[in-house]
Amino acid sequence: MAKRSGKFYFRNEREVMESLGLKQVKGSGNQFDSSKEDGENEYLLCQLKSTDAQSIRVQQVDIRKLEEHAQLSHRTPLFAIQFLNTQEVWLMMKPEDVPFVSEYIKTGKTKKRENVIEVKDVKQKKVKVIASSSDAREQFESERRSKYNKTKSAT
Asked: Residue 1: inside a domain, yes or no?
């Protein structure tokens, strides 16, 4: 099979997000953009993985990042998997999130997420609790940017 272009994946992502009632996030995956997931609306935050293969690997770190981003924005996380050979889209969510997603699919509305955020760090196996205020979110994003920004020495 011929290699698919970036244009194809961008268009495909937009179409899948629209089919789920979500808006595609411009520049998703761009490390300098604060919007890290592929689709969103007022209630849901979605990550899409597409493949031409017969199987797909989903890493726990991808799920945890989606969960973290969804909690920070008070949305329900939704992980979508698409098999391009059949155009099937499957959805993954935690059992406790099924009522939120189901209600959204039926009515187009659902409850907002709670204000206390529990962030699980898979690598270090510790839990941080982050206050859900605009100042706390800005501080979190600032720390994250500084962690990943590379600085060159002037030597």
From this structure: no
pTM above 0.85, yes or no: no
Nearest Cα residue to 43 out of 95, 101, 96, 99: 101
Nearest-10 Cα torsion for 13, 132, 136, 130: -90
89: containing domain: 6-148
Residue 109 sits in a domain whose CATH number is: 3.40.1350
Q: What does the pLDDT look like over 75-90, one tens digit per residue? A: 899 999 999 999 899 9
Q: Per the domain annotation, does 154 fall within a domain? A: no
- In angstroms, rounded to a whole number, what is the distance separating the alpha carbons of residues 90 and 107? 20
**Residue 132 is encoded by which pair of tokens?**
């859900």
